[in-house]
Design a protein that fits this description.
Layout: H1 2-30, E1 32-37, H2 44-61, E2 64-69, H3 74-87, E3 91-94, H4 98-110, E4 115-117, H5 124-127, H6 129-132, E5 136-138, H7 145-157, E6 163-167, H8 171-186, E7 193-196, H9 205-214, E8 218-222, H10 225-237, E9 243-246, E10 264-267, H11 271-274, H12 277-285, H13 294-314, H14 318-322, E11 327-329, E12 332-334, E13 348-352, E14 357-359
Parallel strand pairs: 1-2, 1-3, 3-4, 4-5, 6-7, 6-8, 8-9, 9-10
Antiparallel strand pairs: 10-13, 11-12, 13-14
Helix pairs in contact: 2-13, 3-4, 7-8
C-alpha cells in the first residue's frame, strides 16, 4: 500500500513538473521577436551580425526570434513587415537601411508592433514621430550625434587653446566643420584659422605651414583618417606642435601612415570593449566575433524582453513601456527619450596612444 502511495505521489509530482514546463514553454512561445536584417546582397555581412547577436540573446533569455531578410530595400522592408504581422511577433529589432524601415513602419504601426532599430541614423525617422506616429526606437546614434558631439566635446576641451577648423570639402566634412564652428561662435570662441584642404594628397605640408603661421595648436579636421594621419606626420616633421582631432572615420584601419600619438577621435565605443564579459565569452564559445552590430542587436533583444515584461506587469502599451525607463543591457544602460532616440549621445572622446584609441575622460 505504501509503495502504491509513493508511486502515486511520484506520478503526481512528475505530472506537476511536466505541466509547469509545458506552461513555461507556452509562455516563452508567446514571446516572439522579429529580426529584420539584410541577409542577402552587399550588406549581408552586417545583416548576419544582427542575426547572430539577436539569436544568442534569444537563446540566453529563453525567447524565440523570427529572422527575415529585408534586403535593404523598400520592397524587402514591406515584405518583411507583412511576414512579421502574419507571425504575430511582439516587437521587431534590427534594420540597417532607411528605405527598408520606412516601408515597414506603416505596416507595423497598424499592427501595434514597435521597432528597435540598431543601425538607421536618418534623423527624420524619429523627428517626424508626432506626424507619423511610427513606433520606432533607435538603439544607436542619430545622424547628427557625431557632429554635435564633436562640437560639444572639443569646445569644452579646447576652450583655452588656439584652435583651427579644416575640412575636405565633402558634405560630411563640411557639416562636421560648420557645426563645430557655429557652436564655437555661440560659446564666444573663434578659430584662428579655417580652410578647406585637398584630400588624398601624399603630403599636407602647405596646410601645416598655414596652420603653424596662424598659431594653431589644436586642429579639427573633417575628413578621412588617412588625411588626418598624414597631417599628424607632417606636423611632427615641421615641429608645429599641433594636435589633430577627427570623427569616427578614424576607426577605419590605418594606411601606410600611422596616426600621431595624441590624435583625438570622437566616436562611439567599441562595444566589445565595454560589454559584459560573460556575454562576450558566450559569443567566443560559439566562435562568433562580436563586432559591428552584433552586440547592439543582442542588447535590442534584451530591451525588447524587459519592455514586454514591463508592459505585461503594468498593463501599459508596449510603446509606453519602452519610453523613459532604464534598461540594463550587455552594452550598458539604455534609455529612450520621448521621440525614441537614445537619451544620451553615444559618441565619446578617445586619444591615440601609439597603438590604440583609448577613452579620454571628459574634462
Amino acid at each position: 500500500m505504501e509503495d502504491l502511495l509513493a508511486r502515486m505521489r511520484l506520478l503526481t509530482t512528475t505530472s506537476a513538473v511536466l505541466l509547469w514546463l509545458s506552461l513555461a514553454a507556452s509562455a516563452d512561445a508567446e514571446t516572439l521577436v522579429g529580426v529584420a536584417a539584410p541577409l542577402s546582397g552587399s550588406s549581408a555581412i552586417l545583416g548576419k551580425q544582427i542575426e547572430a547577436g539577436a539569436g544568442l540573446a534569444a537563446e540566453a533569455n529563453g525567447i524565440a526570434i523570427k529572422a527575415v531578410d529585408d534586403a535593404c530595400t523598400a520592397d524587402g522592408g514591406a515584405a518583411a513587415a507583412k511576414e512579421f504581422v502574419d507571425a504575430k511577433v511582439n516587437v521587431v529589432v534590427g534594420f540597417l537601411c532607411t528605405d527598408a524601415i520606412e516601408a515597414a513602419l506603416p505596416i507595423l504601426k497598424d499592427a501595434n508592433i514597435p521597432v528597435i532599430t540598431v543601425g538607421v541614423r536618418t534623423e527624420s525617422l524619429t523627428d517626424r514621430r508626432a506626424k507619423t506616429g511610427w513606433p520606432v526606437y533607435r538603439l544607436g546614434p542619430r545622424g547628427d550625434d557625431e557632429r554635435n558631439a564633436v562640437a560639444a566635446k572639443l569646445i569644452q576641451l579646447w576652450r583655452d587653446d588656439l584652435f583651427a577648423i579644416v575640412d575636405d570639402g565633402t558634405i560630411y566634412g563640411r557639416e562636421m566643420a560648420e557645426t563645430f564652428r557655429a557652436a564655437a561662435e555661440q560659446a564666444a570662441l573663434k578659430p584662428v584659422f579655417t580652410d578647406t584642404f585637398r584630400p588624398q594628397l601624399d603630403n599636407q605640408i602647405g596646410l601645416i605651414g598655414r596652420l603653424k603661421k596662424a598659431g594653431a595648436t589644436k586642429v579639427f579636421a573633417g575628413g578621412d583618417g588617412e588625411d588626418i594621419a598624414i597631417m599628424g606626420r607632417d606636423a611632427a616633421q615641421l615641429d608645429a606642435g599641433i594636435t589633430f582631432a577627427g570623427g569616427e572615420n578614424l576607426r577605419t584601419p590605418q594606411g601606410d601612415v600611422p596616426y600621431a600619438v595624441g590624435t583625438l577621435m570622437i566616436a562611439p565605443p567599441e562595444w566589445s570593449e565595454i560589454a559584459d564579459p560573460k556575454v562576450v565569452q558566450g559569443f567566443a564559445a560559439k566562435n562568433i566575433v562580436p563586432d559591428g552590430y552584433t552586440l547592439p542587436a543582442y542588447a535590442a533583444v534584451e530591451v525588447a524582453k524587459a519592455a514586454l515584461a514591463g508592459a505585461e506587469n503594468t498593463g501599459q502599451p508596449l510603446g509606453e513601456a519602452l519610453t523613459g525607463r532604464d534598461f540594463a543591457t550587455a552594452i550598458g544602460t539604455v534609455r529612450f527619450d520621448d521621440k525614441g532616440d537614445l537619451s544620451q549621445n553615444p559618441f565619446r572622446l578617445f586619444r591615440f596612444d601609439g597603438m590604440h584609441f583609448v577613452p579620454l575622460e571628459d574634462k
